[in-house]
């Protein structure tokens, strides 16, 4: 079967649906209206997902005598480092998700 293209061949392009209430679908799923817009409170977009920056924290058991705490300074010091690395990883993902939403909204796939 030959490929069939949806195109009018004009310089303005081709659009499916004339308004956000027109129902459209792809791949045989039930047509739906355009989804409501996302509310983006984070505005920095990125198209690169960096490697994770977090490292495993030593899971050596806590001390079993008073005052009860970490097995050593290294274990205690590693926890805020890991939390900061996780925060950086979450921020990187927020940037990529923001870029995806921007792209989908730009072509009308997402509200």
General description of the model:
With 111 residues, this protein is mainly α. The chain is 31% helix and 0% strand. The chain has one helix and no strands. The two termini are 34 Å apart.
Produce a short descriptive summary.
This protein has one helix spanning 73-106.
Q: What is the subunit arrangement here?
A: single chain
**Series of H and E elements:** H
Largest sheet: none
How would you sum up the global shape? rod-shaped
Alpha-carbon distance between the two ends: 34 Å
Beta content comes to: under 5%
Number of helices: 1
In helices, the fraction of residues equals 25-40%
Q: Report the structural category.
A: mainly alpha
> What Rg do the Cα atoms give?
25 Å
Mean pLDDT: 85
Please tally the β strands and state the result. 0
Low-confidence stretches: none
């Amino acid at each position: 079967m030959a490929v069939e293209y949806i195109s009018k061949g004009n310089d303005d392009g081709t659009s499916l649906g004339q308004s956000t209430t027109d129902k459209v679908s792809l791949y045989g799923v039930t047509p739906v209206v355009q989804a409501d817009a996302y509310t983006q409170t984070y505005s920095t977009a990125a198209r690169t997902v960096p490697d994770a920056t977090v490292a495993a924290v030593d899971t050596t058991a806590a001390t079993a005598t008073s005052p009860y705490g970490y097995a050593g300074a290294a274990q205690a010091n590693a926890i805020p480092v890991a939390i900061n690395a996780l925060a950086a990883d979450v921020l990187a993902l927020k940037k990529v998700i923001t870029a995806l939403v921007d792209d989908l909204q730009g072509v009308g796939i997402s509200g």
